[in-house]
Design a protein that fits this description.
Chain A is an all-beta fold. Chain A contains no helices and 10 strands. The N and C termini of chain A lie close together (9 Å). Chain B has one domain: Galactose-binding domain-like (Jelly Rolls, Sandwich), CATH 2.60.120. Classes of the chains: A mainly beta, B mainly beta.
Chain lengths: 110, 279
C-alpha cells in the first residue's frame, strides 16, 4: 500500500507582498500537491502567484518550474509537483495592497 | 536478557509493548499539536498558533549527505521556525486501560540548521518530553526538558515543570478551555549536576541519545528517568496537575518538543519510540 501524508505548512497566516513557507522534507514521496485555502482576502488575490521550490540542502533554493495561480472566485488553489528531491517549499507574491489569510497544505504520496 | 529482535534489543520495555514507532513506515500517529478553538482559529491562545509539526527526515546534511536514522532511512524530525522561542511539537494521542506503570523510551538527537560554518552549540534552547494524562480526578502532565542553553549561555540541565499555567476560556460556549503548558516560565532543575551531551564538533555531525521515562498511573507519580548514562532521582518531584477536564478520561498523550534560542531553525529527531506498560 502506498504511503500518504498531509502536512499543515501554514495555518491561519496572513500573506502580504512576498511570502515563503518553511521547508518540508519529502524525500520519501514521489508526488505532491500544495493546496492554498484562502480563509479571508482583501484586494486582488487573482493577480498573485506562488511557485514550488526545490533544494539540495533545505537552505539553498531554486524554482521547480511549475506555477500556482489564484482565482478570485475560488477558495482553494493548488499546484502538482513530481520528481523533486529531499526538500520542498512554496514561495510567491501578492500584488501591493492585497492580503490573504491562508492555510497551506502539502499532500504527499509515495 | 535483551530482546533478540534487533529492532527492540536497544530498549528495556515493561511487560507489554503498547506502541513501537520506527519512522521508516510513516509518522505512526505522531501529528501536530494545536491549541483549542471555537468558532474561529483566531480564538486559539496565541502561543499555540504556530507550533511546527513533525516530518519524516533522512538526516541530510549539506556537506556529508544523508545520514539516515538510527536504523533505517527515516526519523521523525521536528523543525522550528528561524525565530528565537519558536517551538516545534509532535503529539501521539492514545488512552490507557490499566492504572499501572507506563514507560516511554526513545532515541533522540538535536541540532541547529547548519546555516553557518560555526559550532552553533548554544542555538538549541531546549528539547523535551511530556505525558498528558487523565484519571478520574486529575489531568496530570509530567513535563521534562533538557535546557541546552538560554539566551546564549550554556545550561545543560534536565528540568521539570510542575507550575500550572492559567486555564483560559475559549469561545463562548463554556465547553472549551486552554492553557499553554509549554511556556518557558516555571521550569526547575532536576537534582544533580549538569549533564553535558554529545553535541559533536560541527553542526552537521549528530549523535543519537537514549531517553527513558517511567510514570506510575496508579498514583500519578514519576517512577524513573534516565538519559544516556544518567539516572535521575525523581522522588519528591511533582508533575503538573490540574482538575480533570470534561472530555479527557483515560487520556494518554505523548509529546516531544524542541525550541530554538536564536533566529535559526533547530531540529529534534526521534528514532524510534517505544511505549510499554505493566499490564
Amino acid at each position: 500500500m502506498r504511503q500518504s501524508h498531509t502536512a499543515i505548512i501554514e495555518r491561519d497566516v496572513t500573506w502580504t507582498g512576498k511570502f515563503e513557507t518553511e521547508p518540508y522534507e519529502v524525500g520519501w514521496a514521489s508526488e505532491a500537491i500544495y493546496f492554498v485555502r484562502v480563509l479571508e482576502k482583501d484586494g486582488q488575490v487573482g493577480r498573485g502567484h506562488a511557485k514550488p521550490q526545490i533544494s539540495p540542502d533545505g537552505m539553498h533554493w531554486c524554482d521547480e518550474g511549475t506555477l500556482m495561480g489564484f482565482q478570485e472566485s475560488k477558495d482553494v488553489a493548488f499546484v502538482r509537483i513530481a520528481r523533486f528531491g529531499t526538500y520542498l517549499r512554496l514561495v510567491g507574491e501578492l500584488p501591493p495592497g492585497t492580503t490573504a489569510k491562508v492555510i497551506v497544505y502539502l499532500t504527499l504520496k509515495s | 536478557m535483551s530482546d533478540p529482535n534487533p529492532k527492540l534489543s536497544r530498549f528495556s520495555p515493561l511487560s507489554r509493548v503498547i506502541t513501537f514507532d520506527d519512522f521508516d513506515t510513516g509518522l505512526n500517529g505522531w501529528t501536530n499539536l494545536i491549541g483549542n478553538y471555537e468558532g474561529s482559529l483566531d480564538s486559539m491562545l496565541p502561543e499555540y498558533r504556530d507550533l511546527r509539526g513533525p516530518m519524516l527526515s533522512n538526516g541530510s546534511m549539506w556537506d556529508t549527505g544523508s545520514a539516515g536514522s538510527w536504523d533505517g532511512t527515516y526519523a521523525m524530525k521536528l523543525a522550528t521556525r528561524a525565530q528565537a522561542g519558536s517551538l516545534a511539537v509532535a503529539v501521539k494521542r492514545l488512552t490507557w486501560r490499566e492504572p499501572g506503570k507506563i514507560q516511554v523510551e526513545a532515541y533522540v538527537t538535536f541540532k541547529p540548521e547548519a546555516s553557518e560554518m560555526a559550532l552553533s552549540e548554544l542555538d538549541v534552547r531546549a528539547f523535551g518530553f511530556v505525558f498528558d494524562l487523565q484519571d478520574s480526578k486529575d489531568r496530570v502532565m509530567p513535563h521534562l526538558r533538557y535546557l541546552k542553553a538560554l539566551n546564549g549561555e550554556q545550561v545543560a540541565r534536565w528540568q521539570f515543570k510542575s507550575q500550572r499555567e492559567s486555564l483560559e476560556n475559549i469561545g463562548g460556549s463554556g465547553k472549551t478551555k486552554s492553557h499553554f503548558h509549554l511556556a518557558g516560565d516555571g521550569w526547575e532543575n532536576l537534582p544533580g549536576d549538569p549533564q553535558p551531551l554529545c553535541y559533536n564538533e560541527i553542526a552537521t555531525k549528530q549523535n543519537w541519545h537514549y531517553m527513558r521515562l517511567t510514570f506510575d498511573l496508579s498514583d500519578m507519580s514519576y517512577a524513573a528517568f534516565q538519559f544516556n548514562d544518567r539516572v535521575y532521582d525523581l522522588s519528591g518531584i511533582a508533575p503538573m496537575v490540574i482538575p480533570a477536564m470534561a472530555n479527557l478520561w483515560c487520556m494518554l498523550n505523548l509529546v516531544f518538543f524542541v525550541e530554538t534560542d536564536i533566529d535559526k531553525r533547530v531540529f529534534l529527531s526521534v528514532d524510534s519510540v517505544l511505549l510499554s506498560g505493566d499490564f
